[in-house]
Amino acid sequence: MDPSGIFPTSYRTDRRVVRTRWQMAALALFVGLMLAAPYLVSGRIVAILNMMMISAVIAVGLQICTGYAGQINLGQAAFMGVGAYTAAILASKTGLTFLLTIPLAGFSAALFGFLFGLTAARIKGFYLALTTIAAQFIFHFAVLNLPSNWMGGSNGITVPPAELFGLRFVGETAQFYMNFAVTAIMIAGAFGIVRSRFGRAFVAVRDDDVAAGIMGINVAATKANAFLIGAFYAGVGGALWAYMIRFVGVDQFTLFHSIFFVAMIIVGGMGSIVGALVGVFIIRMIQEIIATVGPNIADSVSFLGGDIVFAGMNVILGGVIALFMILEPKGLMHRWNIMKSSYRIWPFPY
Amino acid sequence: MVYFINDIITGALIGLLYALVAMGFVVIYRASKVFNFAQGELVIIGGFIVWFTTMQVGLSLWLSIPLSLVLAGLVGYAIERIFLTKLIGESVFSMVMVTVGLLILLRGLVLLLFGPAVRPFPIIFPLKPLFLGDMLIPMNLLIGGIITVVAAVGLSWFFNRTRSGLRMTAVAEDHVVASSMGISVKGSIAFAWILGSILSTIGAMIFLSGKSLTFLASDIGFAALPVALFAGLESIGGLILAGVIIGVAQSLTTNYLDPMIGGSLGSVVPYIIMLAILLVRPTGLFGWRTIERV
């Protein structure tokens, strides 16, 4: 809802993403702070920010697929893995520049996602969630069992650093700017997609696919598109991941990682791009806290050893998902919007 | 030829074990319309309860098995009370997501409580295989197969013929309609989870008898998933046929195709069958067809 006195007078203004001067100022401040971040905070925090931006790309893709189009997707990590492997193979075998490998990684993941999106034409609800789990298993199987000079098998692939005009993107700061540029493009694209014709079709299919079909929307194509776009984002995120970690292995893309991404959009709020970003921030913060605190606890209860981080993470994220579904199924963005609108119309109740 | 028949029989028996675990999915679905992703974790919790009562407390098997089943039922009831009662009438998405949350929550809890160590599991069924001529059939799978068939026939009679079973079927059809007809949705879901949890514990006993127990054993939940979908989520009797087909297909692939291609295609064959059946017939072999209205 816009604040009082702000109303669009033409379709052009109505379609705007940034609607008020204050929003513009906030966005400029945010982008400015992000650009300055490597000089303001320590290297460790820059590394965390890198991780958050990559997760943000993937979570925004999942948000489009699950939050906007309503297609449950528990295979986002597999799609990310397809992208990461594509980028890794292209970069290490053919030496293509990252300007090409990142989009190609996106397209190959999109193709893989599209195949599973086609099943969505006939299947819906949790059946669909099951086929996306199958995507997860098939990806795992393919990597481990195809000849190991194709995809590295269980050894994984080492990725050469990204390079542009002789400038090598190694170290947190250089990677930060590369990730920031790609993330900014992808998120701007997401805002564009969700307010376009496709985005409105997604929402219509999510709310009621039978009714959407009667209104003339090609439901099967829309669902397949949603998977295609979601997987494209995952693939781009996976390529960034490959360039950041400089190594891809099949253990980085498991069902558990897919569930972490789902947790991000549930916490942030379904059907909101900003919500996905909020969710990424919160879940990654929780992860960092557990990773920092975990080893200290592990010292006192020694029989668990290093597994406490993984175990604690699962307990907390599982609890967070269940709690949010029970108490706040629409996520934090919904709460924030309620607060904002009640502040705007204060002192009136509505 | 003897080996071929032996592979088929072993495959069919493994398929029946999958069917027993899948029965946990179907029972919960059949009485509450919730698809439980955390089924594998229920199996592992059942396994740890059995391990705890026999190896840790030191009870004899005759005492510990009934006690374990009661405890497993209590765990199922507790999960239902804490997480699912509050979601009655909410969307399918919420329910599915809560069980996905449960999947990682329970996995984490098991790791926190018991740690990653490998533990010996009590020998519940005789280790000595049954010899039929040149064929050799694992005893635990054979007894397990018989239990599966008995359980499937019994439960299928219960859900299709008895009054209380039909009530639960109504709940699976529609929560709101069922409760407006005076059927207790809460009671039905609680019963489903208790039963699902007990079936998982029996599955754990058959699967793990005489083997070792780690938290990774929960993967059987995902191995059983294709069986449940192949049969159709509403059919308990159909699980036997689906389990046998998938088990035999998997066994033949592992024994004959895998040596040829040098990979482990056997582990994904159930998923390929599942994807194929979902594309051709989304409701599985014996599932209900529903008509949707706007």
UniProtKB/TrEMBL annotation, chain B:
Protein localization: Cell membrane
Record-level GO cellular component terms: plasma membrane
Domain of life where this protein originates: Bacteria
Membrane-spanning residues: 12-29, 34-53, 59-79, 91-115, 135-159, 189-208, 220-248, 260-280
BP GO terms, sorted: amino acid transport
Keywords attached to this entry: Amino-acid transport, Cell membrane, Membrane, Transmembrane, Transmembrane helix, Transport
InterPro entries, sorted: ABC_transp_permease, BCAA_transport_permease
CDD domains: TM_PBP1_LivH_like
Any GO MF annotation of the entry: transmembrane transporter activity
Membrane topology note: Multi-pass membrane protein
Family, per entry: Belongs to the binding-protein-dependent transport system permease family. LivHM subfamily.
Protein name from the UniProt record: Branched-chain amino acid ABC transporter permease
Species this protein is from: Pseudosulfitobacter pseudonitzschiae
Taxonomic lineage of the native organism: Bacteria, Pseudomonadati, Pseudomonadota, Alphaproteobacteria, Rhodobacterales
